[in-house]
Amino acid sequence: MDAVTLRRFFHRHAEVGFTEFRTAGKTVELLQSFGYQVSYGKDAIDESSRRGLPDDGQLEEAYQRALRDGADPDIAQRMRGGFTGVVAVLKGKQEGPTVAFRFDMDALPIQESSDSDHVPHTNGFRSIYDGSMHACAHDAHTAIGLDFAKRMASRSFSGTLKLIFQPAEEGGRGAYAMAQKGVVDDVDKLICFHLGLGVPVGTVYGGSTGWLNVTKYLAHFHGYAAHSGLSPEQGRHALLGAASALLHIHAIPRFGKSDTRVNVGKLEGGSSSNIVPGYAKMLLETRATVEEVNAELERRVRNIIKTSAEMYELDYEIEITGGAKSIRCDEELVSVALQAASNVEAIRAAEPIFTASAGEDACFLTERVQNLGGLATYMIIGSDIPYPHHNEKFDIDEAALPIAVELLENIAALTLNPS
Ligand SMILES: [Zn+2]
Ligand SMILES: [Zn+2]
Questions:
Q1: 360 C-alpha vs ligand 1 centroid, how far in Å?
Q2: 72 Cα to the center of ligand 2, angstroms
Q3: Distance from Cα 170 to the centre of ligand 1, integer Å
Q4: Nearest CA to 144 among 403, 328, 337, 319?
Q5: Does residue 388 contact residue 128 with C-beta atoms inside 8 Å?
Q6: Sheet arrangement for strand 86-91
Q7: CB 152 within 8 A of CB 161
Q8: What's the rounded Cα separation, in Å, for the pair 120 and 131?
Q9: How far is CA 113 from CA 3, 19, 398, in A?
Q10: Ligand 2 centroid vs 150 CA: distance in angstroms?
């Protein structure tokens, strides 16, 4: 199967973070068939470092669905419960460095469009899973990784090629758990990339900057439910405490030394007009270009939630459900990427550094590699997109796929050669 066919397969089977049983299962099957040594399940992901895990019911439902749709039961079994990370290793003929490439596999909780101008719909590969959609091109990332893997299996090189397929990039969750497992601890060079982001097909950036520090929170407010007519004074109004926190979180000032964002994206509580709400929950996030400023935002958010809860005599808990940090790209690897790009005919423009203003959880892998003395970069590979990332009509230009595969092959040729 070529990259386009694979991408369409993954697009149809769009699975959200930590439920990628069909996607990761297929990935394991193919990598094994190419001759890679593959570890997955609990061997590839640290159980207690998984953040923002779906509840047991959702995990099991997605697992059963993958089995019904043809997942290999022995492989899927080892991923059951949300262990959907995959690491593949191929050793070269001689000793040499360990070079790793990272691909993310998860979809988003979006109902995919069935409009007549939405290509995945008109071409019959719209998501078959209600409410899940590949709207960030991770279907293509996985497909590129597998096509690249197949080609590398017949190449001769020195050193070790390592391919990391991670779950749950959205929400900043999966890479952290794989980094904590130590999957990149032996890596000398790590190459990550994203398709799209407004960059046209034929243009490539060898590195990127401006990735935001992000923290995602789930706050629980516990009050006491009571009859709103008979005895409202006996109640403790959880929704009022949460609503008060919401207003004050959005009133945190901007910072002079960093771009910042705060957003309460979901507030939920209560059940009926005649009941004082006994429980409320809030989903929110903070972002900043400067890491220390995001830490200060977190301190203020915690203080606001604490004092709002106290004002209404509520108990509260705050869970961190995900996050990301900024990414630093090493110049040496950026140059390698640009040199590799210059040998791909379809790449018309190769630029050094793209400025992103999103969050990307590959930061936990790049940081770990760099802390241990290795090098890392995060490239952007152009692909025209008719609608923005995370939109229900998002799509990519599939012409980017063979370009990406060839670029990765060239990077491998430059980094996995005898020294
Ligand atoms: Zn995304
Ligand atoms: Zn993405």
A1: 8
A2: 27
A3: 6
A4: 403
A5: no
A6: 37-40, 86-91, 158-166, 94-104, 189-195, 375-381, 203-209, 349-355
A7: yes
A8: 15
A9: 23, 22, 18
A10: 23
Q: Residues 69, 82, 134, 89: what is their CA dihedral angle, to the nearest 10 degrees?
A: -90
252's tokens = 């945190």
Distance 347 CA to ligand 2 centre (A): 22
Ligand 1 centroid vs 107 CA: distance in angstroms?
A: 8
Q: Which residues of 72-100 are buried (b: 16+ CB within 10 A; e: fewer)?
A: eeebbebbbbbbbbbbbbbbbeeebbbbb
Which helix (H) or strand (E) is 266 found in, with range?
strand 260-269
Instruction: Determine the distance separating the centroid of ligand 2 and the alpha carbon of 410, expressed in angstroms.
Output: 23
Q: Do 197 and 389 form a contact (C-beta atoms < 8 A)?
A: yes
Exposed, middle or buried by CB within 10 Å (0-12, 13-18, 19+), for 156? exposed
- Six token digits for residue 159: 């050193």
pLDDT tens-place values along the chain, 419 residues long: 899 999 999 999 999 999 999 999 999 999 999 999 999 999 999 999 999 999 999 999 999 999 999 999 999 999 999 999 999 999 999 999 999 999 999 999 999 999 999 999 999 999 999 999 999 999 999 999 999 999 999 999 999 999 999 999 999 999 999 999 999 999 999 999 999 999 999 999 999 999 999 999 999 999 999 999 999 999 999 999 999 999 999 999 999 999 999 999 999 999 999 999 999 999 999 999 999 999 999 999 999 999 999 999 999 999 999 999 999 999 999 999 999 999 999 999 999 999 998 889 999 999 999 999 999 999 999 999 999 999 999 999 999 999 999 999 999 999 998 55
Does residue 213 sit in helix, strand or coil? strand
- pTM here is 0.92
The CA distance from 305 to 295, in Å, is 15
Query: What is the 323 CA–ligand 1 centroid distance (Å)?
Result: 13
Which residues have their alpha-adjacent CB atom under 5 A from ion ligand 1? 136
Ligand 2 centroid vs 104 CA: distance in angstroms? 8
Q: What's the CA gap between 33 and 52, in Å, rounded? A: 32
The angle formed by the CA atoms of residues 168, 174 and 180, to the nearest 5 degrees, is 175
